[in-house]
Design a protein that fits this description.
alpha+beta; Transferase(Phosphotransferase), domain 1; 5-stranded antiparallel sheet; 3-stranded antiparallel sheet; 11 helices
């Protein structure tokens, strides 16, 4: 248990609360105080080393006592990081400081002092920014100020986890999507490609993304209020036919825009169609472009596994890499029916016109609507 090690550290360290404000996100007083103390120790020792830096084209000597003290401080930090790694207090070391610690580990000696290598610059000292960053937080920079936000879990999929945080600067919620640990190189490329596709699109009906963090394999995007699935479960008996029609036409506009840009989504479903609830209007936006098909990118042609629970079941036999417009029409027809009725079972549809519309969209591929325009015209004629 990490509690015993925390107790040991409190006895071993000369505790200081000088930097405790930087570690409030940890929410536990003993950890806040310990991290504040370790922060202070690193600054003192790095400042001492700066007296021998920069080394340029010659080496320098770092005295024995501070060498041993820095070795001990780094050991305490790394041990604490391991002890807390599976707890809610897990933390990482800020990237720049992690690099300095790694470099120090290469030359520090516990006896006789240490030889600082050539071409080592003075160390930047973090007086106002944290060195230890709580995992499942995000560091957002506004002007010259770094602000740490707690991340609240929202959900998880096969390849990624999603979190929410509130940014006081904008007074808005944002979402962070993080790739799961252990993904293959190709899966990480696909995850990055999802961001790049969404970043390249500019439509009010596509979820907006903002920035990609290569170190964390994560990106920030706008926060939406509902999945289509959740919205209909909560409101199906209260939604007017006019609202349903508006949502459907927005969905069709989104897909037409996407197709004009050369993409097929390939994973259209009530969980990937999101809703933003403004005071005066509901806006549909499409998300989750991890399976989007771009004919110019080889990553979109190698995956033959059947995905998407609104997809044409015949894809299991035809192969997911053979996904084309007729399959996108199938998924869209299912979504239109779902928005219209709140149901997914298309076996018995009492309304004759709606039944005919659905049968054509889900029927033999050669008989389906050939484009979004044709599908949209058929829907308007219902």
């Amino acid at each position: 248990m990490y509690a015993n090690y925390l107790a040991e550290l409190r006895i071993d360290l000369e505790l200081t609360d000088e930097y405790e404000e930087l570690y409030k996100p940890f929410g536990r007083n003993d950890i806040i105080l310990i991290l504040s103390t370790l922060h202070s120790s690193l600054l003192k020792l790095f400042k001492s080393m700066n007296g021998r830096l920069p080394t340029k084209d010659y080496c320098a000597h770092f005295w024995a006592d501070p060498s041993r003290e820095l070795i001990d401080t780094i050991d305490k930090i790394e041990t604490l990081q391991r002890r807390l790694s599976k707890s809610e207090y897990a933390f990482k070391i800020e990237e720049y400081n992690q690099g300095i610690i790694n470099k120090c580990n290469e030359f520090l000696s516990s006896s006789g002092g240490s030889t600082i290598p050539e071409n080592m610059d003075k160390i930047e000292l973090f007086y106002v920014n944290p060195i230890f960053i709580k995992c499942n937080t995000i560091n957002v920079k506004h002007s010259s100020e770094n602000i740490i936000h707690d991340l609240i879990p929202l959900g998880e999929g096969s390849y990624a986890l999603t979190y929410k945080y509130h940014d006081d600067f904008y007074n808005k919620d944002f979402v962070v999507k993080k790739a799961r640990k252990g993904l293959s190189e190709k899966e990480l490329k696909r995850f990055r490609q999802e961001f790049e596709i969404m970043k390249s699109l500019n439509s009010p009906y596509i979820v907006e993304v903002y920035s990609y963090n290569s170190e964390e394999n994560s990106y920030v995007m706008e926060h939406m209020d509902y999945t289509l699935d959740k919205f209909l479960k909560l409101n199906n008996d209260k939604i007017s036919s006019g609202t349903r029609k508006s949502l459907i036409l927005q969905l069709l506009k989104a897909c037409k825009y996407l197709h004009e840009k050369g993409y097929l989504h390939r994973d259209l479903s009530p969980s990937n169609v999101l809703i933003k609830a403004y005071d005066d209007v509901l806006v549909i936006k499409i998300s989750d472009f991890g399976l989007a098909k771009d004919p110019n990118n080889e990553l979109t042609t190698v995956n033959t596994e059947f995905k998407g629970y609104f997809n044409d079941p015949n894809l299991k036999l035809e192969g997911f890499n053979n996904y084309d417009m007729s399959h996108e029409i199938y998924a869209l027809t299912m979504l239109i029916y779902f928005i219209t009725t709140g149901r997914t079972n298309t076996t018995k549809i009492p309304d004759k016109n709606l039944n005919n519309f659905v049968r054509k969209g889900l029927g033999e591929r050669v008989n389906r609507y050939k484009s979004i325009d044709e599908l949209c015209e058929a829907y308007r004629n219902l």
